[in-house]
Amino acid sequence: AMIRGHPVSLGLLLLLIHSAQGHYAQKLLNDLMENYSSALRPVDDTDRALNVTLQVTLSQIKDMDERNQVLIAYLWIRQTWHDAYLKWNKEDYDGLDVIHIPSSLVWRPDLVLYNKADDDFSGPMDTNVRLRYNGEITWDAPAITKSSCVVDVSYFPFDSQECNLTFGSWTYNGNQVDIIMGMDSGDLSDFVENVEWECRGMPATKNVIMYGCCSDPYPDITYTVLLQRRSSFYIFNLLLPCFLISFLAPLGFYLPADSGEKVSLGVTVLLALTVFQLMVAESMPPSESVPLIGKYYIATMTMVTASTSLTIFIMNIHFCGVEAKPVPHWAKVLIIDYMSKICFVYEVGENCASPLPQGPTVTFGPCVFCTHGSGFAGMDTKLVRNVEYIANCFREQRATCAKGAEWKKIAKVMDRFFMWIFFIMVFLMSILIIGKAP
Ligand SMILES: *[C@@H]1O[C@H](CO)[C@@H](O)[C@H](O)[C@H]1NC(C)=O
Ligand SMILES: *[C@@H]1O[C@H](CO)[C@@H](O)[C@H](O)[C@H]1NC(C)=O
Ligand SMILES: *[C@@H]1O[C@H](CO)[C@@H](O)[C@H](O)[C@H]1NC(C)=O
């Protein structure tokens, strides 16, 4: 019976202890709260400061709003202090050394986030506090903070940001409530990685501000959240498309003028770039510092505009036609002789298979029929004159054709020349922007 009864009595004993503790806890709370006021700073000596130890854990970065300059973070805030009136003797309460009670029952330091950017001024959450027999109170409270943060987007999308979270007592000065850093930095051990931002650390500094000449000190603790943007999203969605589109702009020079699409290609490219630029501008604060990517867009758009205008000029040259003046000599020498060799332009239609084999060329002397007088003596002079007229016409037509072809060739050489120039420009600009990335 004894062996069987043993577990039963043990259970009973445990239950007894438990109920005894519950009973003691009740009594303890009644005793503690009998003459306690949560309104007053709980110190024995009112001349001494109450030390509050602050420790902040960054759990998550919920959002970084660049446009409104607000950082939304999920924090766990731990405050520890000693309450001079909430002490008890462990032995009097059956060894009870820790109780958890609602935080609204005890005095709490009024630590607030100074650079709060929230519209609602609700206080911290009413979570429980942990009260030890020696009066030490530990209060853990989760908080979603909206803090203002000066966002500098000049290096977007390769930027890094520093956001300050400043905590201080709202009403007490440093001689009444002193804040002490729990650790040298914010705790990141429970940090949930953010998709856009990488957290590089969270150093803490304590500042003591004296307002006026001889007044009281106001201590605060500033946590600086160091954030580095993960730029791959922006590289793939904003930079790479712009990069590819901008390579189309020089190709506009390569397009044959007779297709009539040269200018519309330039305008289309310009429109596409405008769309991307608007997308960037929408998410950036309207500040004076233009982000790096914005500068790239502007430079690319300037280049495309220049190339389109140049195309229009070159088109004019291309369609000079038969009424035009002959090509000036210097242009012939400079463009047709030298530049065409530099730009590898050989013949007007050279990139469409080999030129057609030329038929036997019939050359007419200035006056075929009239020189050898005797053989054609019987010929009608009228017929001779007519044939001569036809020959002259033919000669003239060939000459104008050649003139038109010369202008066309000049247009082509210039096209090719600017194509290379703009290719090099696009390339250099892209190198420059990538070089700025850290
Ligand atoms: C609370 O105050 C009353 C009256 O001032 C006093 O009689 C009583 O002993 C006090 N209780 C405790 C626990 O200090
Ligand atoms: C608060 O801390 C300072 C030193 O950091 C110490 O001198 C002071 O006595 C502490 N105050 C209390 C009430 O313990
Ligand atoms: C953030 O806090 C640090 C430390 O107090 C200070 O040096 C820095 O200037 C602050 N930055 C901003 C933007 O206020």
Automatic annotation (TrEMBL):
Compartments reported by the entry: Postsynaptic cell membrane
Domain Neurotransmitter-gated ion-channel ligand-binding, first and last residues per copy: 26-230
Domain Neurotransmitter-gated ion-channel transmembrane span(s) in chain numbering: 238-347
GO molecular function, one term: transmembrane signaling receptor activity
Principal subcellular localisation of the protein: membrane
Membrane topology: Multi-pass membrane protein
Transmembrane segments annotated in the record for this chain: 233-256, 263-281, 296-315, 417-435
Signal peptide: 1-22
Gene Ontology annotations for the cellular component aspect, listed alphabetically: postsynaptic membrane
UniProt keywords, alphabetically: Cell membrane, Disulfide bond, Glycoprotein, Ion channel, Ion transport, Ligand-gated ion channel, Membrane, Postsynaptic cell membrane, Receptor, Signal, Synapse, Transmembrane, Transmembrane helix, Transport
Keyword tRNA processing: no
SUPFAM superfamilies: Neurotransmitter-gated ion-channel transmembrane pore, Nicotinic receptor ligand binding domain-like
Listed NCBIfam families: LIC
UniProt family annotation: Belongs to the ligand-gated ion channel (TC 1.A.9) family. Acetylcholine receptor (TC 1.A.9.1) subfamily.
Descriptive protein name: Cholinergic receptor nicotinic alpha 9 subunit
Species of origin: Haplochromis burtoni
Lineage: Eukaryota, Metazoa, Chordata, Craniata, Vertebrata
